[in-house]
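Retro notes (design track)

What went well: tokenization of the new backbones is finally stable.
What didn't: we kept losing track of which sequence belonged to which structure.
Fix going forward: every design gets posted as structure first, then sequence, in one message. First example under the new rule, 491 residues:
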């Protein structure tokens, strides 16, 4: 059990004394008439004489972030959701009883006060309190220093404190909200419909990942937290919702790193009568205009690296990338044994039974993926690693698919959808063989999805964008934990 500090005990004593004196330390009847930022905006340019002539009275409420005590008078900094404003509390003005109440307050308490605006001798806009109320007593002191790597994990665990004392952290999450809104508005303006699909699914599908499993007592059945909404969104396309999207939470039972959190946010969308090439154009427009909206320019800095989102972005195939960034012989793309041999030369530990296409993908990820710092579309992935993608007409060993890479990381994954039910069933069966051979991330068979395709799905392209990773780039955040309010941590 956590040991309470001396200051905690002192504050608890103050709380008990207030209750004994008939003061409710947690009332809920104070209504501020103004917010700090708006006060500064509306009256920040007025002179001392203007303020005296206008006699502007208002009420504000917020957390006490600083106290300068001069005995019978004090200056405090009050912080609400919009910003900070100074207040002046004088015993002669508020009265002895109210000033005694104020003296029982500490930094971190929530206060409400009413008064008129004036300027101090240092010309700072200030509220001269005529009345004040304690709105919530804080029992813990605010952290004096909340910066640096020594406190990084505590910041994640106690995000409420992080937000309270680090304004730049709040800015990140306000920007995240604006990013999600922009993406939603962008798609809605193009006639996409926003929907919600199940987070509890009998079969985890739509991605190669290990699911979290749970059990529903009333139904007497095992369920999975979704790893992707894909198969449900495509059912909606079958049903006639030809442009559809979801901003969704996905769950994957995998490791935690600066790039991975087991619970994360995706934007996934589908457009009928479109190809993966159409989605490259749409993605380029959507994200480049988003960067412009957020930063006022298409060129930004990320952790010391200059990134340029000005279209057009580089487009390169998996094969071209491997040949460009490694000494691979071209024969690895037609000869599995040579691919396996080359993978070992790269130091990869490839299981002997791994398919040719998966070996090629492992080689690409080791030799080339990290090279793509600027926004790049990598296309033509092997069919083995793309069980839901449409085969390429010219080379059926490949699929019509792209991944968008920025800083060597996958930001988006998209493809022309497989809508041939016979082919889809065969691919599911192939995945079952791989699962039986020990691949825990292989797809399950989803008979109902195959049945939906048997009713006919129009030619369609679909895409998933990792919101957390995109927000990392656009807020210059080094870790995914910096852009998730409550990231998963060990106990």
């Amino acid at each position: 059990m956590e040991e309470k500090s001396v200051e905690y005990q002192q504050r608890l004593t103050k709380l008990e004394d207030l209750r004994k004196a008939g003061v409710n330390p947690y009332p809920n009847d104070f209504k501020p008439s103004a917010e700090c930022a708006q006060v500064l905006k509306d009256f920040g340019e007025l002179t001392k004489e203007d303020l005296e002539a206008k006699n502007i009275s208002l009420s504000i409420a917020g957390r006490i972030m600083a106290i300068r005590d001069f005995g019978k008078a004090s200056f405090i900094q009050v912080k609400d959701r919009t910003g900070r404003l100074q207040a002046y509390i004088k015993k002669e003005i508020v009265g002895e009883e109210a000033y005694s109440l104020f003296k029982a307050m500490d930094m971190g308490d929530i206060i409400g006060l009413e008064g008129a605006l004036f300027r101090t001798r240092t010309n700072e806009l200030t509220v001269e309190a005529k009345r004040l109320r304690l709105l919530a007593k804080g029992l813990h002191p605010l952290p004096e220093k909340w910066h640096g790597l020594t406190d990084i994990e505590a910041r994640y665990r106690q995000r409420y404190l992080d937000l309270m004392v680090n304004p730049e952290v709040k800015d990140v999450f306000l920007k995240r909200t604006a990013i999600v809104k922009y993406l939603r508005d962008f798609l809605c303006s193009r006639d996409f419909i926003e929907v919600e699909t199940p987070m509890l699914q009998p079969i985890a599908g739509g991605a190669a990942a290990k699911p979290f499993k749970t059990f529903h007592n009333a139904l007497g059945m095992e369920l999975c937290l979704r790893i992707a909404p894909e198969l449900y969104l495509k059912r909606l396309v079958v049903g006639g919702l030809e442009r559809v999207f979801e901003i969704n939470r996905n769950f994957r039972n995998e490791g935690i790193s600066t790039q991975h959190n087991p619970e994360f946010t995706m934007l996934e969308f589908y457009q009928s009568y479109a190809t993966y090439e159409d989605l490259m154009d749409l993605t380029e427009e959507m994200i480049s205009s988003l960067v412009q909206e957020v930063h006022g320019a298409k060129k930004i800095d990320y952790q010391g690296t200059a990134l340029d989102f000005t279209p057009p972005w580089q487009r390169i195939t998996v094969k071209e990338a491997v040949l460009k960034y490694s000494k691979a012989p071209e024969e690895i793309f037609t000869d599995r044994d040579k691919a396996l041999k080359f993978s070992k030369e790269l130091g990869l530990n490839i299981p002997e039974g791994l398919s040719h296409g998966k070996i090629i993908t492992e080689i690409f990820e080791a030799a080339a993926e990290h090279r793509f710092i600027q926004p790049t579309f990598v296309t033509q992935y092997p069919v083995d690693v793309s069980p839901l993608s449409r085969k390429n007409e010219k080379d059926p060993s490949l699929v019509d698919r792209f991944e968008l890479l920025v800083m060597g990381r996958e930001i988006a994954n998209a493809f022309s959808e497989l809508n041939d039910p016979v082919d889809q069933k065969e691919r599911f069966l192939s995945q079952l063989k791989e699962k039986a051979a020990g691949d825990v991330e292989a797809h399950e068979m989803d008979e109902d999805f195959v049945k939906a395709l048997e009713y006919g799905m129009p030619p369609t392209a679909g895409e998933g964008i990792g919101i957390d990773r995109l927000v990392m780039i656009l807020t210059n955040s080094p870790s995914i934990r910096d852009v998730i309010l409550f990231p998963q941590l060990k106990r």
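Added context from the reviewer: The first helix runs from residue 6 to 20.
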